[in-house]
Task: structure prediction
Amino acid sequence: MIPKAVTKETTTRRPPAPARRVLSKLTALVTACALVSASLPVRAQQAKGPPVLRDTETEQLLRDYTRPILRAAGLEKRNIQMVIINDKTFNAFVADGRRIFVNYGAIMQSTTPNQLIGVLAHETGHLAGGHLSKFREQLARTQTQLIIAMLLGAGALAAGAANGGSNSAASNIGAAAISAPQEIARRSLLSYQRQQEENADRAGVKFLTATGQSARGMYETFKRFTDESLFAARGADPYVQSHPMPADRVAALAELARTSPNWDKKDDPALQMRHDMVRAKISAFMERQDTVYRRYPLSDTSLPARYAHAISTYLHGDLRVAIEQIDALIKLQPQNPYFHEVRGQALLEGGRPAEAIAPLRRAVQLSHNAPLIEMLLGQALVASNNTANTDEAIAILRAALAREPEAPLGYMQLAMAYGRKGDYAQADLASAQAAFLRGDNKTARELASRAKTRFAIGTPGWVKADDIVSAKMPDKKD
Result:
């Protein structure tokens, strides 16, 4: 009832200029708070944010890092997913209660598994504490308080204007009644966030201790952040920060972490090797070639360095030499699925898809049918231009998409396979699904509409196409 009365009042008499300015600031603050509580994937899609990186080897390593921590936190059955973001800065975060987002930069800058595991334990602390939902509740309460303060302040401003203009005491009181609660609300939210960060730190150490792992890596990571931010934090107001002050946070974390009986426990050498191999792989794919060779000079004959050299050679150099380097790796570790995957990928991207099929088949077998590698195999089968491979490609791609239903590449390859077979209804549907997942909803609806005309009404394909046509999603802006 109150908002309706205010709306009526403002239609007959506009608030004085000071009131309009303060109301505008309040609206901006409430809007900003609402964005904080929104789902990250939606914002990223609308803003064309950094894309997600997909790699079976890296994702499997992250899952192995988080599995015992999630078990200790009681979240093992929640099917928490690991998502790698294409960003070279060190960051990890949670946004929707079911995924942990990790920048590839966090992997690159973690020299030991324990350092990255400590960060993942901290993020698990946010999930276990239900911090996202609690923050939204706190935000809702704060918004309510802001709205009440706005209404009371606007009433005082209007009264002041009626009794002598915007410089009257009543107007000044009204302006203060609007602006003061904004600052109080902002500090209240920030204080709540700082408390959540401290709770996540404590929970992370608890989970690491419960799983027999050291909290030293977690401490080392936050200590490095502190050292890098000391100058920026000098003179900062601790009450307007979203995180605890760096020095205070690290001191509290050190005191807590050092009490763990596992403080001096080292990472398993095999796990350290896997970590180093993934870092080498990311470097080769994501960094400039000269950067890769500065990080892994030719004089470095370690397995990670050779992995980086082989990938970098196929991306930037001679495919023949790259295959020789990859074959040397396979000879050392013939059961490593990711060496076979890289060999197949190099041949596929080098324009030799028929030769890529055999190593990719082996990679699928050794990886226990990893869906991303299955999609790569399906792509090779389609690209081979051999009609005898079409049915196998369709079967492999459909099986992979059943477990990875949000992979546009799989649907694109499936569309090509169905097109080769002359099944244009399924080809249109798969193309529509690929476009939908890319965020190109206009194209998705057009293709799905055409697919509907090719399917019999009520069939599973028709229903899927109709779901895309009916989806209420904003069109992608060019």
Notes: Residues 41 and 95 are 8 Å apart (CA to CA).
